[in-house]
Amino acid sequence: MNASTRGARFLEIVGGLLLMFIRGILLWLVIPIAFLAWVLVHGWAQHTRLRHALAWYDFNTVSLLMNGPLRLMFRAEQRPPFVGVSHMGKGEWHRVSLNDLL
Q1: Which of 35, 65, 95, 96 has the fewest Cβ atoms surrounding its Cβ within 10 A?
Q2: Residue 79 has what DSSP assignment?
Q3: What is the reported pTM?
Q4: Which of 54, 67, 66 lies closest to 27 in space, CA to CA?
């Protein structure tokens, strides 16, 4: 393992820790906003479930962080693409749990 590989690995670890920290803070804002958006728009217009809306907002928040301010800490193949709102009810999403808020 040479110095540039160790440096890149260190950046990925720091980026992952920053991502978890910033995401944990942002979820306190994203979840209420996603709930309101689901009540006002997504629930009746798109007929999506609440868990799909929450997971979609969370996924795009992570994507925004990894493709935005933390872009230099992750390789291009690690950064997830944004998912359009039309795919909200179609994807297999991860679940947002209380552990994510801590």
Answers
A1: 95
A2: S
A3: 0.82
A4: 54
Q: Which residues of 43-66 are buried (b: 16+ CB within 10 A; e: fewer)?
A: eeeeebeeebbbbbbbbbbbeebb
How far apart CA 45 and CA 89 sit, in angstroms, is: 12
Contacts of residue 66, defined as CB under 8 A and 6 or more positions apart, other chains included, come to 19, 74, 78, 79, 80
Q: What is the mean pLDDT of each run of 10 residues along the chain (102 residues)?
A: 78 92 95 95 88 91 95 90 85 65 56
CA 47 – CA 33 distance, rounded (Å): 18
What is the rounded CA–CA span in Å between residue 30 and residue 66?
16
The span from the CA of 75 to the CA of 93, in Å, is 23
What CA–CA distance (Å, rounded) separates 3 from 18? 22
Cα-based torsion angle of the residue sequence 67, 83, 22, 25 in order, rounded to the nearest 10 degrees: 160
